[in-house]
Amino acid sequence: MTVRLDKFISSHTEITRSEIKKLISKKAVTLNGETVCDSSLKIDPESCTVCISGKPVDSRDKVYYLLNKPAGYISATYDKKEKTVTELLCEDHRRKDIFPAGRLDKDSTGMLILTNDGALSHKILSPASHIPKFYIVKLAERFRDEYVKEFEKGVVIDGGEKCLPAKVRAFETVENTALTEISQGKFHQVKRMFEAVGNKVEFLHRVQMGALMMPVELGFGSYIEIMHKDLSHLLDKPDFGAVFEKINENLSSYSINI
Question: Which domain holds residue 34?
Fold first, then answer.
């Protein structure tokens, strides 16, 4: 299928159409190695190579990045005052259509998927999917054994909302630290759940969604590209005990403040 050159460049980069015209006038745009003079030229992205100042424009329709979100960034594409997670992508990977599929609070860290795949985002955000999400939690006070049963029966948070059953287990090697699994996405849910049982979350770090685990070696602000086939693991329901043991083995390797 053919598309206008300026539309293709605009949808696959952060460059506006007016900027594209200026680049073309400066002979900075090439098509299959030949300088382009007309922004309305019809091209077939699958069989053509478009370059801007010698750099190829990524022609792929769908892209997926797994980001280790640092604190201080909001899960949005644009904000006048705050830094956004899309700013963490390198210039070559930035596109107008990329957005975070899901969210993490500004002060929370860890696994976040950036994509331009709306269907995938809907699956992640849909309450019907019940995708399990796993968080390493640092608490203000010691972990109490009764939390396990309270989470299993469903914690009633402020406002009288009852959460779906969740799982939680303390790490023995690190004080006041636990792994929790939830399958909902209520606003500040993990923090509100621990407040409801008389504790407070000081640090929240997401390490896994479904059976897709974030690489231990991925540092804050870093990201990797993942394939669409890998995303099928998002809908898997892994065993909590197995996830706990795997994370516990590598707990000291995570670049988190515990």
Answer: 3-56
Q: Are residues 96 and 113 in the same domain?
A: yes
Q: Which of 6, 38, 97, 105 is catalytic?
A: 105
Same domain, 103 and 230: yes
Please report the pLDDT score of residue 120 as a whole number: 87
- Using CA atoms, how far apart are residues 88 and 188, in angstroms rounded to an integer? 23
Catalytic site includes residue 105:
yes
Q: Which tokens in the block code for residue 40?
A: 């309305």
**How many domains is the chain partitioned into structurally?**
2
Specify whether 70 is located in the same domain as 90.
Answer: yes
DSSP class of residue 156 equals: B
Band (256; pLDDT cuts 50, 70, 90): low
How far is Cα 165 from Cα 167, in angstroms, rounded to an integer? Answer: 7
Can you give the pTM of this predicted structure?
0.89
d(CA 58, CA 97): 13
What is the Cα–Cα distance from 90 to 56, expressed in whole angstroms? 14
Nearest-angstrom CA–CA distance, 57 and 36: 14
Q: Are 129 and 184 in contact (CB under 8 A)?
A: no
